[in-house]
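FIELD: query
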Amino acid sequence: MDITDVRIRKIGDDGKMKAVVSVTFDGEFVVHDIKIIEGQHGLFIAMPSRKLGEGDFRDIAHPLTSETRNRIRDAIFVKYEEVRDEQYDAVASAVDFPASAAY
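FIELD: result
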């Protein structure tokens, strides 16, 4: 199964949730609401889940092997970094500081 599209649908810098992602497989199957979260040891992905009871969550869809999880994670992080860098560049170019400005 090939990852044919990764879409960063929502990106934010406030809080631990950094983005919400949709991943398409073979151009035929999509998984929405994969989250990029900043944890104690860096970024990780959280698969879509639903709340069961007292704070317990269960994945709605998830990879069965660590190799598949790693491929999905890597594709998501590549796209996330592209989108984040594009947003940073757009903000940086919108702010036009004079060369003689003292910082």
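FIELD: remark
Helices lie at 66-94.
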